[in-house]
Amino acid sequence: MTETVLFTGAAVLDTAAGALVPGQxxxxxxxxxxxVGADVDAPxxxxxxxxxxxxxxxxxDCHVHVNAHTADLAGLGDxxxxxxAVTAAIELxxxxxxxxxxxxxxxxxxxxxxxxxxxxxxxxxxxxFGGKALSQTGGHVDMRPRGRTVRDDHxxxxxxxxxxxxVDGVRKAAREQLRTGAHHVxxxxxxxxxxxxxxxxxTQFSLAEIRAIVEEAEAANRYVAGHAYTAxxxxxGLAAGVRSIEHGNLxxxxxxxxxxxxxxxxxxxxxxxxxxxxxxxxxxxxxxNLAKNELVLDAGLEALRLANDAGVAICYGSDLLGGMRRHxxxxxxxxxxxxxxxxxxRSATVTAARLLGEEGRLGQVVPGxxxxxxxVDGDPxxxxxxxxxxxTHLKLVMQGGKVKAGSLE
Length: 409
Known about the structure:
Layout: E1 5-14, E2 19-29, E3 32-37, E4 46-49, E5 54-57, E6 59-61, H1 73-76, H2 81-97, E7 100-105, H3 111-118, E8 126-129, E9 133-135, E10 161-163, H4 166-179, E11 184-188, H5 207-219, E12 223-230, H6 231-239, E13 244-250, H7 253-262, E14 265-267, H8 270-279, H9 287-296, H10 299-310, E15 313-314, H11 331-336, H12 341-347, H13 350-355, E16 373-376, H14 390-393, E17 394-399, E18 402-406
Keywords: Hydrolase
Domain Amidohydrolase-related: 54-400
InterPro entries: Amidohydro-rel, Metal-dep_hydrolase_composite, Metal_Hydrolase, Metallo-dep_Hydrolase, OTAase-like
């Protein structure tokens, strides 16, 4: 049961405008925001005076891997699915307690975790899942070492991807993910850091294969998210209809033009390269993986600045693996070093909601939206660091009108 609550004395973060509006009252009823304004009243509601604290929408992380309790992705597929599910449940609860009331997992999470969260069996963010990411043979989720031929693509194997080749093969693979209720299909458009045999600067899948996957997603009223680093790989995906580009550290002006032309989204994940450089070996990355990490580590900030200055729709992503996931909130301050705080906050709220098809329901404190709310002691527009220390500054996490962390006292 949700409680009817009237928050008074709130400084409401208007994420669309990038402004803090003091002296507001926000009424929560039946799991939704019923009214917002200076004169809202509700005699039947429990009144909670925030004393000027910031009331803001719950955060949205558009790139997490809840199954990746280790950075050794090549070994993940050999772990027990039951064990991985338990560790995922623990991590999902931790994400919620950091203030993330919604996450998108573009590789690994499945309908089982989604249903467990939706039914309240475990605590965690709302989950938009993609099932297994699709990769060509030798691509970013083909985790076989060079000498191994056999690969287990069983549905319950807890690794993050599925290897498929040829137009017919990728169509079937996309349909299999969509059959499970996936909110999007994730594909590998280039090489990556954590895989053993591909180059960062490679392109993956033929244009015909990419277009076939996009066609299948669009037929199901879903979209394609594409992992890519270089401008060449990004541009191929955008031209073929990929809706969101994950990472994009090595984009250029030609990529920016295509983002704007197609109304596509960029999901940078800068914190993961910082943490992999510092902790990757501890959590299972090989020397070869760490060498590839150096190729994209510093370029991401310039790519972020370039895209933001041009008006590309940018979403928040972290992409952390294993024990490094505890640094999920550090993406705020990394981005804040090169772009305005208001833009960083939009990336984790209103813009992210647009990518997820949840505009008006998530990412804003407006009537009709889900009551996914945070109470923060401090002004994140003035100092993004208040979001990175939840033990000190995060006083309340509400999801769907239910208190998940902190209290109404």
